[in-house]
Amino acid sequence: MPNNKRKNRGNKNKEVTMTPSNEKDTPIQDYEDDDIEEMQEADLKKLIRTLRSSQKQILELHKSLMDKIENLSRANEILRRNQNETKQLVQQETVIVTEVKNSIDQMKNTIESLTNRMGEAEERISDLEDREQERIQSDQRKEEEIRNLKHIVGNLQDTIKKPNIRVLGVPEGMEREKGLEGLFSEILAENFPGLEKDREILVQEAHRTPNKHDQKRSSPRHVVIKLSTVKHKEKILKCAREKCQITLRGSLIRLTDFSSETLQARREWRDIAQVLRENNCQPRILYPEKLSFVNEGEIKTFHSKQKLKEFVVTRPALQKMLKDVLHTETKKHGHQYERR
């Protein structure tokens, strides 16, 4: 009997050892209850080790999964926070965008208002420019009319004065005895004996100018002699230029013929003559339109202001004296040129 039992155990061992070799890699095998009862102690130990190894792997896998779950939770929390922060930033940006949009709308409204005002201002400026242009044209027409009127008046004055002779230097009251016509005849007799006998020379009218005598005026008023013809006037003036010095009862007088242009030219010397007079330069306005004055002990005579300016440049003291008045004259003529 014992031998049979040993044989059976040996057969069982053989049966156990005859299991396929590839079953070693299988962690857990499916065993029936009968199989488990027939298993040997070694196989149980092996099975227990396999179960422990599997349990260990399961625990490690569980730990790894839990770590991953925890990391995912943290990542999810960070993502949630980021989402909240992003949401807040989006809200802030939305507020900023809204404010910017409102500011842009206000700026658009302001620009539109300014554009409208600029349009109105441009229209006003255009109207003012049109009015200014009309005023300039009106002033130009008025100036042209004034120039034409002056020219007409000058022509009329020249026409009226053509046969006239002015006698300068006749003392006031001398005409009481013979009258101005008699004095003129005396002048002709004293200076031009041949003309005095010319019966064709007739005096139509004689008077002093201005009509009213100014007691404060040191020089006598001019005597205006109106002759019958221009031919006689020119004849007398020619003789006067040839004789140079004309006298009346021994006193020097002067015969002149002042047209409107000559009078205007003489007037233009007045400001310069006044400055020279204030500085004791003894200025005189000679016939027809020359300026004479004393400079450094010599008498200087100038026919035009240009010649005077050229001379003044060489005399520093005189240049300083006449600087303002010559500059004013230059500026005045410049404005007249621009207007023309």
Automatic annotation (TrEMBL):
Coiled coil ranges: 62-131
Domain L1 transposable element RRM: 162-256
Residue ranges of the region described as Disordered: 1-29
Keywords: Coiled coil
Gene3D superfamilies noted in UniProt: L1 transposable element, C-terminal domain, L1 transposable element, RRM domain, L1 transposable element, trimerization domain
Domain of life per record: Eukaryota
Compositional bias segments (type: Basic residues): 1-11
Transferase listed as a keyword: no
InterPro entries: L1_C (IPR042566), L1_dsRBD (IPR035300), L1_RRM_dom (IPR043636), Transposase_22 (IPR004244)
The keyword Membrane belongs to this UniProt entry's keyword annotation: no
Pfam families: Tnp_22_dsRBD, Transposase_22
Domain L1 transposable element dsRBD-like: 261-324
Family, per entry: Belongs to the transposase 22 family.
Listed name of the protein: L1 transposable element RRM domain-containing protein
Species this protein is from: Oryctolagus cuniculus (Rabbit)
